[in-house]
């Protein structure tokens, strides 16, 4: 390859020649210098030092029979270093035995040239392997670019999803008497519970998947999305609801699940080739919206589910939602002191709440209190 072939602005490829015979270094150097930048090393140890210098050689011509460290040992060492493991190595040797060639190739050499070599043949092989390396490097660069682009777009989509999710949840919250940071607190509570429960034998297998844990936590802000369907005179009523009004209020759980599942159905109809992850996310959100008012003993709503019939996202939000409501100020009630709220949660173990979720909560009370302080509303009592 000439400079013209390489491009006038491109640096010449660097080739490292390794041979203990000075004459061989001179002959190969004279042959290669018109087209390439050449480095030389007269021992295996020196070859490893030179190969590690910048710029890393594009190709190495390596003699096998050298005193001390032979060519095979040099090649093994090159393959063990991340900086040099991808440099193509051509063995140049006086040996002419099939087993020697087979051994060199098995160690990772790309070619094998015997002495006395024909200059035209050697140059052709050097050129060929340099072209192959350039092609591999281009492919690696393209793959790295594509990987980075996929990560960038995935992160961008995640941010869009999170913003959209929070906007929808905030829309529901703005129509409610909930406090401003309720969504953030309940999401943080659930994240804490998930991390603790994954260590428990009963939940270890189900929560082993980090993506599932993330999905459950991300869905938390949508648990009350169904409240957008509740009339204002009921949703915003400052006093106690009548039995008829309470019946309407309880429909928010089913309304939220129906809305989310209807969204899934519409997208599936319009985009049957759409990836499944968004659907899994919305289904988890629908489970949480629908079941976070179910009770462990079967006395909850809307379906009266009992025990493990209640989806895990709903069981987690049931505790997180009640705890936050207890310690928060509302227009119709004063906040409850932390110790009393914890006692009430413990009393509902096995009745309102999954016993294991309550146990995890008790282990995490200090961290729950810290979350409440961090995302406190004005005059939030969580530190009490």
Automatic annotation (TrEMBL):
Residues 14-130 form the Response regulatory domain. Residues 157-377 form the HD-GYP domain. The keyword Phosphoprotein applies. It comes from Aquabacterium olei. GO terms for biological process: phosphorelay signal transduction system. Transmembrane segments: none annotated. This is Two-component system response regulator. Keywords: Phosphoprotein, Plasmid. The keyword Cytoplasm does not apply. Coiled coil: none annotated. The modification 4-aspartylphosphate is found at residue 63. It holds the Pfam family Response_reg. One of its GO terms (molecular function) is phosphoric diester hydrolase activity. PROSITE patterns: HD_GYP, RESPONSE_REGULATORY. SMART domains: HDc, REC.
């Amino acid at each position: 390859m000439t400079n013209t072939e390489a491009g006038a602005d491109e640096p010449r490829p660097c080739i490292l020649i390794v041979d203990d015979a000075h004459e061989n270094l001179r002959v190969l150097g004279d042959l290669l210098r018109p087209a390439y930048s050449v480095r030389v090393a007269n021992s295996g140890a020196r070859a490893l030092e030179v190969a590690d210098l910048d710029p890393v050689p594009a190709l190495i011509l390596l003699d096998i029979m050298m005193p001390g460290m032979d060519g095979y040992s040099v090649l093994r060492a090159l393959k063990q270093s991340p900086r040099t493991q991808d440099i193509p190595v051509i063995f140049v040797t006086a040996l002419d035995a099939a087993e020697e060639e087979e051994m060199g190739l098995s160690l990772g050499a790309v070619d094998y040239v015997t002495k006395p070599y024909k200059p035209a043949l050697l140059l052709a092989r050097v050129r060929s392997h340099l072209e192959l390396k350039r092609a591999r490097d281009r492919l690696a660069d393209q793959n790295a670019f594509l990987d980075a682009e996929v990560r960038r777009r995935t992160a961008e989509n995640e941010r869009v999803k999170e913003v959209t999710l929070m906007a929808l949840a905030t829309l529901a919250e703005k129509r409610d008497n909930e406090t401003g940071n309720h969504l953030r607190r309940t999401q943080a509570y659930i994240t804490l519970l998930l991390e603790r429960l994954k260590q428990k034998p009963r939940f270890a297998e189900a929560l082993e998947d980090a993506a599932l844990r993330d999905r459950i936590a991300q869905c938390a802000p949508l648990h009350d999305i169904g409240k957008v369907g509740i009339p204002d005179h009921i949703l915003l009523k400052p006093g106690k609801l009548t039995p008829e009004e309470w019946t309407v209020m309880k429909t928010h759980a089913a309304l939220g699940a129906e809305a989310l599942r209807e969204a899934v159905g519409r997208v599936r109809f319009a985009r049957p080739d759409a990836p499944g992850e968004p659907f899994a996310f919305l289904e988890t959100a629908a489970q949480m919206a629908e079941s976070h008012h179910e009770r462990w003993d079967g006395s909850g709503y809307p379906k009266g589910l009992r025990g493990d019939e209640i989806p895990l996202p709903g069981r987690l939000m049931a505790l997180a939602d009640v705890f936050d409501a207890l310690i928060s100020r509302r227009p119709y009630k004063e906040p409850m002191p932390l110790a009393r709220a914890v006692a009430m949660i413990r009393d509902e173990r096995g009745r309102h709440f999954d016993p294991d979720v309550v146990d995890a909560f008790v282990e995490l009370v200090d961290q729950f209190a810290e979350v409440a302080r961090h995302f406190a509303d004005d005059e939030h009592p969580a530190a009490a």
